[in-house]
Design goal:
Layout (H helix, E strand, L loop, with lengths): L2 H28 L6 H9 L2 H17 L7 H10 L1 H35 L15 H9 L2 H22 L1 H9 L3 H25 L5 H21 L2 H15 L2 H10 L6 H10 L3 H13 L4 E3 L2 E3 L1 H4 L2 H21 L1
Antiparallel strand pairs: 1-2
Helix pairs in contact: 1-2, 1-13, 2-9, 2-12, 3-9, 4-5, 7-11, 7-12, 7-13, 7-14, 7-16, 8-9, 8-11, 9-11, 10-11, 10-12, 10-16
Amino acid sequence: MIFEAFLFAYFIMTCGLSFLETSANPYILSMGDESTATQRLNFAQAFNPLGSLTGMFVAKEFILARLNTTSEVQRRELAQRDPGVFSQIQQSDLNVIIDPYLILGIIVALVFIVFSLTILPDSKSSINSKLDLKPTLKRLFSNRHYREGVIAQAFYVGAQIMCWTFIIQYGVNELGITKAEAQSYNMVAMVIFVTSRFICTYILKFINPGLLLMVLAFGGGIFTLGAIFLPGIIGLYSLVAISACMSLMFPTIYGIALEGLGEDAKIASAGLILAIGGGSLMPPLQGTIMDMSSFTMGGFVLSSTRTSFCLPFICFLIIGYYGWNTNRKRA
């Protein structure tokens, strides 16, 4: 029941994930021909959403479905009127959460042991392991294509977190369904994401990564407009469909931003992982918009929930520009 302890543990876990991705992505890019590096990274990351889908299933069936159904408003009232009952509800919810996290910790420990005992092949860039940080950073900061890639990555992660996190709020606020039911739509979005990732990886054999990134960003923008302006279940379907367009974006932006950087890719990779911070900046802004009252444009009234998705729309415009610019340079 100590929130600071939870945050500290969460921080340690995400630090490990950051180290892993910063190391693994350039490692995958270097293990083959540079012309197929982006496709190779897309294929490797196509398996990531399987873990996310498993996590969503666990959250739905073993956490959300078992939490106490007392609403937030009632809980605040109980905290004032009957602190004892409120504490019991808190402890009950905590007991529900403990087991999934404990099992996750055991699984991660087992994976750690497996990797500790496994001899991995050297990458092409492992011969020269010395890094000269200052000149490397100077070259990277002067590389416009790389800088734009970091910016595009930040906006992509922001769009991804917003579109996935707020599916639940969209379903609850716009359709009046329960959080558990809304989570089902989140799982459908993840299945679409996984499927589209494999499809897009195959398409990359025939299409320039920049061009495909631009097309999918355009599609993501169209579906986002659907979530904003189409009422009811059609708007929710549009929000779910965005995942088909997002599937390619992270590894493709990653791959084309690191293209041609050679040894500098090791440090450049860290910059692209740092761009994940975009996912911590934009969702609070969207949440702030959601907390506002409805917006009126002429005689058209738009709920604050639907209006808030103007932020992911802006993100897709920026991603689309990066894809267009990359494709233009290669044409």
